[in-house]
UniProtKB/TrEMBL annotation:
Name the UniProt record assigns to this protein: Nitronate monooxygenase
Pfam families xrefs: NMO
Keywords: Flavoprotein, FMN, Monooxygenase, Oxidoreductase
Domain of life: Bacteria
Database matches in PANTHER family: 2-NITROPROPANE DIOXYGENASE, 2-NITROPROPANE DIOXYGENASE-LIKE PROTEIN
CDD domains: NPD_like
GO MF annotations in UniProt: nitronate monooxygenase activity
Amino acid sequence: MDTPLTRLVGVRHPIVQTGMGWVAGPRLVSATANAGALGVLASATMTVDRLREAIREVRSRTDAPFGVNLRADASDAGDRVRVMIDEGVRVASFALAPSAELITELKDAGVIVIPSVGARRHAEKVAAWGADAVIVQGGEGGGHTGDVATTVLLPQVVDAVDIPVVAAGGFFDGRGLVAALAYGASGIALGTRFLLTSDSTVPDAVKARYLAATVKDVTVTRAVDGLPHRMLRTELVDALERSGRTRTLLQAVRRAARYRKLSGTSWLRMVQDGRALRHGKDLTWSQVLLAANTPMLLKASMVDGRTDLGVMASGQVAGVIDDLPSCGELVERIMKEAGEARERLGDL
């Protein structure tokens, strides 16, 4: 299927695997790339040195194009960009809109820039700054999310910019791909669906929790870091929502200390990164610390399998997914379903 996205990044299929922290590592990214879709490596939970190693590991597993996801507001974003340029990464994606200067630096080095946005005005801004494409995530998507449904947000963005638009939030099959194309998108981005594959390194017991979830088990909470965060409802989420301010602060400090030890990050940098996540919100200090060490809460589940100690970011589609195909099987299935959906439309 030939679309502006496939032509831009050089992949066979208009499907993007999103950069999920602790999930989108070299194994998942290379499996996605070998399946003909765009795999995106999550760098926010890596040190700069580990990022370089991970890029080289992906390249050792595949000759296909892949991308790296960055936090534009991270204090070491410049160092990570230089690693990407040095290592010849083809695509840079961003969880938040990068600055005009960062976009220019990447484009001057021949890197394709694809920010993720959750509002039309953000898409217009990064397009004016020179972004090559944009991923637009509706409220159905997992992790930090907005409250506007993809079916409302997507056509707004498609009408507002003249660069390829990739639709995210609520997609898991070929019917969704065709629907996104009908809206004017050039492809779809999937997170939870790729998390729930056999190539994902997420522990089997955690995958089982996702597979057992219904649509009603996926919730949006502000208790983790003060921002809307879509995830599976767990005992920890319930406890955070019931906790008072003092108890929450103590928990935040304790988890922040664990994340600092794991990542080698200084307390100052953690607070700076946490404050950068505020987006102008009036967050308490406990929420700032929780925002800074949310990666630790994700690691507890996604790596250690401790769902009692961690959180599980999730799109609403977790409630309709019931299997664990390989990335190759998943991409092949999506494209087959898309072909069938187009034939049905042709019959009409």
